[in-house]
Amino acid sequence: RELQLLHFWLFLGISLAALLGNGLILSAVACDHPLHTPRDFFLLHLSLTDLGCICTTVPKAMHNSLWGTTTISYTGCAAQAFFFVFFISAEFSLLTIMCYDRYVAICKPLHYGTLLGSRACAHMAAAAWATGFLYSLL
């Protein structure tokens, strides 16, 4: 029982730290105008996917460790798997887009504004979220 409580408090501490960190990133990028660059735009979306992954898996794990249960319903398992794959796939897509962003910034700095305008960034972010949704349907 003591090990289960330790597991619960450990999960609680780590998840609260991750939620606080991602929340600070979200609020900083959303509120501070100089942080409205493509890099920070993708970082905002990346922190949203991190929040989604945390909120998908950690609450059930904390519930299981606190109450000593080891079961999950079929619908709960399917929903958790769907959302976890959705957020992880979107995160991988966003990381790929962020690699392209850095490539353009380093290798083609004169074309950066043309290749990564606000409209192109919004389209790439929407494509990342759509990719996550399509992968989770599989």
From TrEMBL:
Assigned keywords, A-Z: Cell membrane, G-protein coupled receptor, Membrane, Olfaction, Receptor, Sensory transduction, Signal, Transducer, Transmembrane, Transmembrane helix
Protein family according to the UniProt entry? Belongs to the G-protein coupled receptor 1 family.
Q: Name all G-protein coupled receptors family 1 profile domain ranges.
A: 21-138
Q: How does it sit in the membrane?
A: Multi-pass membrane protein
- On whether Secreted is a keyword of this UniProt record, the answer is no
Annotated membrane-spanning segments are 6-29, 79-100, 112-135
Q: What is this protein called?
A: O14I1 protein
Q: Which InterPro entries match?
A: GPCR_Rhodpsn, GPCR_Rhodpsn_7TM, Olfactory_GPCR
Report the gene name: Or14i1_2
**What are the BP-aspect GO terms?**
sensory perception of smell
* Keyword Transmembrane attributed: yes
Per the UniProt entry, the signal peptide is 1-17
Name a GO CC annotation attached to this entry: plasma membrane
PROSITE patterns cross-referenced by the UniProt entry: G_PROTEIN_RECEP_F1_1 (PS00237), G_PROTEIN_RECEP_F1_2 (PS50262)
GO MF terms, alphabetically ordered: G protein-coupled receptor activity
Location(s), subcellular:
Cell membrane
